[in-house]
Design a protein that fits this description.
The structure is a homodimer. Chain A is of the alpha+beta class. The first copy, chain A, has 20 helices and 18 strands. In chain A, the strands form 4 sheets. A 7-stranded antiparallel sheet of chain A has the order 15-12-14-13-17-18-16, with helices on both faces. The first copy, chain A, starts with 26 loop residues before the first helix and ends with a helix. The interface between A and B is large, with 90 and 91 residues.
């Protein structure tokens, strides 16, 4: 649609941007050794060409089409094949595998582009009146299956793309609140704020291709959540179009009105309605922002240092530490001349060896600071003291600059690997500090067990991100080599092993990717069966005929088995 | 009940503790001038004696009685008149007026004291099976009518007192999490934590007489919420007995599982079930804690300084500023030799007058700091710089020490005033910074208008407490003189004027006292009609026959008119 930016129909990001290994000399040997595939040969498994896709005819009767056209304008209602394909999936590796193969399944029949809360509200009412299905669409970056059309769905499926609703409407400068339309993509939203000296401070990995409405609908967290909070903290008010009514929550710093309606909308994944705009906390762009690199002798030490930092008076912007596996990956993806590996000098490594470090266990960490110059300087001192007391060392600003440059690039790697015979994705959790290291060990063991079970070489790595008083998020990335068919089934064995271990080890099903269909098998274990019933009861009350993004969040199949695997 | 501490049946706090004016020479003249009553004469309107109460026979059949006795033990099931009276009301001024007059209305028929989650779960099931009504009881300090039995209730009413469930069960020292039973009163809970070097940091005005379960059920906030968070932030996991099931939320620092079940329980006021225990954030008792006093030339300046402090890099423990009305009240309640007024020296006042201050507009402020010594010193410097830039002055530690000594005493004043012909209570709200001063002005005007309307002399005063990035809480205290009957109706006119102005001026119906029945007329305006429907739908789903604390939160009468006034 003109004026609305979408990602590649078959993969992550924009056309013309992709991952390259040629300028990263250690990458190919690393992947050959750890994942067992050769990435130096040309892509052996490219996606189908668009012309090869078998796009089914849309199921849309003239009545609904003309009603929708009457509400948003003829030019903003489309059944164009490319439009429908773009709105079919999110960007989980399962989605990528299916779309590359042309396995479209039951897909949206029509895409509409409303331009106001009022238009969205009318579209919602029209869809419900026609007993059709409505799936809200923001940036399409979801990896939990939250955009999935249930396979057996016989009703007309309407994808409501918020892409035209992308404006910063108002800043309350005194309060530090901004009213922004839900369809605004991260960069566009942030650009409008920064022009006036403000920032939302919310930078998820998907930032370039995800929207404010999507962040709220999936309870997203950004890399700087230690300072700015999760989207659940940042969102102070909102508007959501629901069948027959519009929910309006005015911006409030806090309230004792419970059960919290704001928290019902957060993470509702389109099942209660379509979020159209939100009041969010914004802050003045800070005088100074610094991200420093650190090394720890091993992951346990890194975790313990981060824990102590978040029990101290220090208030960092971001705190992150990679395990040795991810550290080795980072070094392997380093560019020849200007990558992170230039900080791993022979002299430094010799020094660390003399200190007694096992360099195979080296862990890379990033900790960032923001505020006035004096505040940033003080925070650096407080953190340095804790890091060095734990036997870590400060590497300096260079790695932090690289971190900032590369922070949104990782998702591109999945397409590159799929082209060459490996499936990669992420799973994240949060747990109390006391459970993090055992959880980490158990998840690594579970993944290794799953690799053995499916008979494929695989790799799993992890970093701690997002710190809280009582615990933190562990963010795992994993890849499995595969041959031909069965890759989704194999991927499922690994994903299921990891997710089940999250719950078993005291973590949540996902720290910041929502429930969708991908994580719904673990909902009852996460919030207990009584909690799942409460969620289900709320959703069913608001949408008794399941017209709104049906099948998400509450799972009705076999516990512990992905809905998608059963299809 | 043996081992369970209750407040006076007719008033606030413990027997033998009450407010005295004799040691506060400015108090009587102040009240005579501002509220129009003479407090120097003996109490002219004491409460009835207990023997004078007309306590109706309990409506409890033998089946339910023996079932309950079988579940919790014969000695923990009581229909004793005093027990039933103690469990009849909370402690709003409406409650106090009614109980002093012996207007008990429909009251609990039986009180049970379970001792475990399992016992509570069985009691819930038994009550629902008998189609009776269950009202959970913590400390009984609620001022929103959350303990009220609906007047027309014909079913047996069972008050479930959590008082025996008062133990600290476990501390996860690595994570900073404590598992505590819901019936633990503030001081007992804090004592058990402090013995091991920890604190929950949650100190609402009601701290001495309220419980963890009550705090969660009403979305409470403590005085130190700027550092420790509201109870909604502090509560990380919990257990709640529901009909036929037990909800268990494991302690998690954060999660993207939405809609948040944790946030459904927070503020649910017994309508979803009985909270039996919770995992809460706890922190190590800080090395240093300091509360300093400050003066501002007027309230607007004080608000602006607090706002700027919370936009800066400073992270205070508590930030509070009184308007000139409350400042004058504080000075009037100052003890002769050692009260706050000793800091209002002639020399200082002369200096401030020379600076151009209008001493009638003087505003007292408290800002507190906690952490390591160096952190506290730095915070004091950061805050002093902002305060003085706004023309405020640092008064020093003395007032802060007095603040800490007196902080839980204010509620006793209401009984003293009722004895002498004035009704006083509080109403609080939260709003964005940009709306605070207009809201304040509008609420003062609305209250003055209400005093005129009812033809009674009255007084209203305010302080800012609880600061957030985007706004703050304004906490109003008001008193009206009254003669004989009609006092509740007169009080209602004032309360309604204040609450309506909160909403009209962009605030929430209550920042930290919940909805109950007292605030439910404003629910639909607070969260919009669609939001009220979502809350109602959730509550009805979980409790279709309204066995659990019926009538709370969702109002079904005339908008803007208190349910209680209509009875």
């Amino acid at each position: 649609m003109k004026g609305v930016q979408h990602m590649k129909w078959w993969g992550w990001g924009l056309d013309g941007i992709s991952f390259h290994h040629e300028d990263k000399p250690k990458f190919a040997p690393f992947v050959r050794e750890r994942v067992g595939i050769d990435v130096t040969t040309p892509a052996a498994r490219p996606p189908l060409r668009f012309e090869e896709l078998d796009v089914p005819e849309p199921r849309l009767d003239d009545d609904l089409r003309s009603t929708l056209a009457g509400l948003v304008g003829e030019e903003y209602v489309t059944t164009d094949a490319m439009e429908r394909v773009v709105h079919t999936f999110g960007k989980s590796v399962r989605d990528l595998i299916r779309i590359r193969r042309g396995e479209l399944g039951r897909m949206p029949d029509v895409v509409v582009y409303p331009d106001s809360t009022d238009e969205v509200a009318r579209v919602v009412d029209a869809v419900v009146a026609a007993d059709a299905v409505l799936i809200p669409f923001g940036g399409g970056s979801n990896i939990a299956g939250s955009l999935e059309v249930p396979r057996g769905e016989t009703r007309t499926v309407v994808s409501v793309d918020l892409g035209r609703m992308n404006k910063l409407l108002e800043i309350d400068e005194e309060s530090g609140l901004a009213l922004i339309q839900a369809g605004a993509l991260g960069p566009h939203l942030e650009e409008q704020l920064q022009q006036r000296g403000w920032t939302i401070g919310h930078f998820p990995d998907s930032f370039s291709h995800s929207t404010l409405g999507g962040w709220i609908a999936t309870r997203s967290s950004g890399m700087q959540s230690d300072r700015y909070g999760d989207i659940a903290d940042i969102t102070r008010g909102l508007t959501m179009a629901m069948p027959g009514k519009v929910l309006t929550l005015r911006p409030l710093p806090s309230s004792s009105t419970g059960p919290s309606v704001r928290e019902m909308v957060l993470g509702s994944e389109g099942r209660l309605g379509v979020i159209t705009e939100a009041w969010v906390n914004v802050k003045r762009v800070a005088e100074e922002r610094v991200v420093l690199g650190y090394f720890f002798p091993d992951f346990a030490t890194g975790l313990e240092a981060l824990r102590e930092i978040h029990k101290s008076d220090a208030t960092p912007l971001v705190g992150r530490v990679s395990d040795e596996r991810e550290t080795q990956f980072s070094l392997a993806t380093s560019k020849k001349s200007k990558g992170i590996s230039k900080y791993v000098t022979k002299g430094l490594m010799a020094y660390l060896t003399r200190k007694g470090w096992d360099l195979q266990k080296l862990c890379l960490s990033f900790i960032g600071f923001e505020g006035s110059r004096s505040h940033v300087a003080l925070q650096q001192r407080l953190v340095r003291e804790i890091v060095t007391r734990h036997g870590g060392i400060v590497v300096g600003k260079g790695p932090g600059v690289l971190y900032d440059q590369k922070k949104f690039d990782t998702p591109y790697l999945r397409d590159f690997l799929l082209d060459r015979g490996a499936a990669a994705d992420v799973s994240d959790t949060a747990a109390p500090w006391s459970k993090l290291k055992p959880l980490y060990d158990n998840v690594i063991a579970a993944a290794e067990g799953a690799f053995a079970e499916i008979g494929c070489q695989g790799y799993i790595m992890c970093h701690l991100s997002h710190n809280y008083h009582s615990g933190a998020c562990l963010y795992f990335t994993f890849a499995v080599a595969h041959e031909g068919p069965g890759v989704i089934e194999k991927y499922d064995v690994v994903k299921r092993a990891i997710q089940s271990e999250f719950i078993r080890s005291g973590g949540t099903l996902s720290h910041h990717h929502g429930v969708g269909v991908e994580h719904s098998p673990w909902l009852a274990e996460d919030v207990s069966p009584a909690g799942q019933e409460l969620i289900g009861g709320l959703l069913d009350f608001a949408d008794p005929k399941h017209n709104l993004n049906p099948g998400k969040i509450v799972h009705t199949g076999t516990p512990g088995v992905s809905v998608l695997s059963e299809q």
